[in-house]
Amino acid sequence: MWDDIYRELETSGLDPDEERAGTAWLDPFWHLLGEPRGKMLDVGCGLGADMARFAAEGWRPVGIDLEARATGFVGRTYGFPAYTADIRCPLPFDDETFNLASSRFAIHFLPPGGARDLFRELRRVLRPEGRLIFAVNSQEHRRLGLQYDYTDAFEREADYWHLPTLDRTYLFYSTRLAKRLLGSGWRILHLGAEPFEHWGIEKHAVLCVAEKAGTGGLPS
Question: Judging by DSSP bridges, how do beta strands 98-104 and 39-43 pair with one another?
Answer without folding.
Answer: parallel
